[in-house]
Amino acid sequence: MTAIRLHDTMAREKRAFEPADPKRVTMYVCGPTVYSRAHIGNARPAVVFDVLARLLRHRYGEDSLVYARNVTDVDDKIIAAAEAEGVDPSVITARYEDFYLADMGALGVRPPTMAPRATENVGEMIGMIARLVEAGNAYEADGHVLFHVPSDPDYGALGRRDREAMIAGARVEVASYKRDPADFVLWKPSEPQVIGWDSPWGRGRPGWHIECSAMIEAHLGETIDIHAGGLDLIFPHHENEIAQSRCAHNGVPLARFWLHNGFLSMAGAEKMSKSLGNVVTVAELLEQGHKGETLRLALLSAHYRQPLEWSPQLIAQSKATLDRLYRAAGDAVAGEADSKVIEAVADDLNTPLALSRLSAIDDPATLRASAALLGLLAESASAWFQGEGDARVDALIDARAEAKRRKNYAEADRIRADLEKEGILLEDSPAGTTWRRT
Ligand code: AMP
Ligand code: ZN
After folding, report:
1. pTM of the model
2. Is 397 found in the same domain as 371?
3. Domain finish residue from 261, 291, 306
4. Which of 9, 232, 314 to mutate to test ligand 1, by most ligand atoms within 8 A of the CB atom?
5. Using a 6 Å cutoff on CB, does residue 112 contact ligand 1?
């Protein structure tokens, strides 16, 4: 059996992966803050770590993986969005959690084993904060509870930044109630009209970092096999998670492997982010007629640690690759996965290599099973080309209507005649044009 090797951010190298308990492999990925539609960059961690989940299930057994991806459903941006709409925050979070699941489902992302919500684990967070206060790692000041960074001599091991860079990078306000500028919030007070919970420190709400530490402890255990997320989460989010959990657990480490995906950017631009306003959402791409599986293959076309430039060409190439793979696979039933493809995925999720090896497989049953490891070829070939044909006919009907509007009747007649040659009859009525196969 090929060994699984994963690049561990903490060790700064690829290491052989063995779970602490092969019967219960634990993985946690930091999930979405649910107040807006996911952009295609947000989909990258969901898709690449879905491939990792598929690999782990393939290796250790379908039921051996316990994969948690949290839902951040209490946050200042959620509160602001709720105020802007004049609704309860739960209206915003329920809406965008549903959208997130639908969008990721369209990309072939299997739901994780559990998706714990922050608002349903506040008791666990309060418990962990209380322990940190008792141990001398946290203190109460001005209605807030803060983690005291100098109380943890190992703070910063993941990103290995120096202290000045961390203070500057965190862009934390240097509030007067802080003992040290690097200290971060575990609990903050809520105004009476703002969402909040009773706590030993008054009515308030948790900070973001404590959410993951408390939910990992509650649902997975003190030390998990794999913790993952985007590169931007290394600091401060994961650094803070590590400090909180280690200090609350007598020095026991939070995770045995740390994985981080690189950033997706728009061709010719910086990273894609909501604050830069250069985002394209998964929903928009689907509305443009791209299939979820095409977008998934595009996201897997680069190695997950590398940057990925998103462009129309990338989508077109991915579509062409999938057409080729579907033609080769036909409607065959999956057999056994190819060992060369498994080897590529097991080598730190080398999806570009796995994709090129897929293209070399002749046997349709082997091709289907191997593609399934990447979450590809989920449909039958007939379904793939059928839906696709419909979208193309609809686009041609639109082009014909546009030609008529421009009084270019020759062009409109040419489109109709071409479709007729394919056995597709157009029927005009006052309500518009419909079509049927003859
Ligand atoms: P957020 O909802 O902004 O907290 O992001 C959710 C996840 O998406 C996190 O793991 C981020 O690291 C990741 N992420 C956000 N933007 C990008 C991007 N442009 N490329 C890749 N991953 C991203
Ligand atoms: Zn987290």
Report:
1. 0.88
2. no
3. 261
4. 232
5. no
Task: Specify the ligand 1 atom closest to the Cα of 33.
Answer: 2
Query: Both 313 and 198 in a single domain?
Result: no
Is the C-beta atom of 264 inside 6 A of ligand 1? yes
Residues 161 and 304 in one domain: no
Residues 111 and 198 in one domain: yes
Domain region containing 81: 5-261
Band of pLDDT at residue 172, cut at 50, 70 and 90: low
Residues 297 and 394 in one domain: no
308 lines ligand 1 (CB under 6 A): no
Residues 6+ apart with CB under 8 A from 356: none
Beta bridge partners of 188: 205
User: How far, in Å, CA of 107 to CA of 375, rounded?
Assistant: 9
CA-nearest of 205, 215, 265, 260 to 39 is: 265
Q: Whose CA is nearest to atom 8 of ligand 1?
A: 42
Tell whether 156 and 269 lie within a shared domain. Answer: no
Render pLDDT for 373-416 as a digit per residue (tens, 0 to 9): 999 999 999 889 886 677 778 888 988 998 898 899 998 999 89
Q: Are residues 153 and 41 in the same domain?
A: yes
- Does 233 contact ligand 1 (Cβ within 6 A)? yes
Q: How many Å lie between the centroid of ligand 2 and the Cα of residue 50? A: 17
> pLDDT of 82-133, one tens digit each?
999 999 999 999 999 999 999 999 999 999 999 999 999 999 999 999 999 9
- Give Cα 160 to chain centroid, integer Å: 25
- In terms of pLDDT, which residue wins out, 280 or 172? 280
Candidates 112, 126, 127, 131; CA nearest to 220 is 112
Owner of token pair 């830069």: 276
Tell me how long the chain is.
Answer: 438
Residues 95 and 34 in one domain: yes
What CATH number is attached to the domain comprising 82?
A: 3.40.50.620
Domain count, the chain: 3
Q: Domain boundary residue among 234, 261, 288?
A: 261
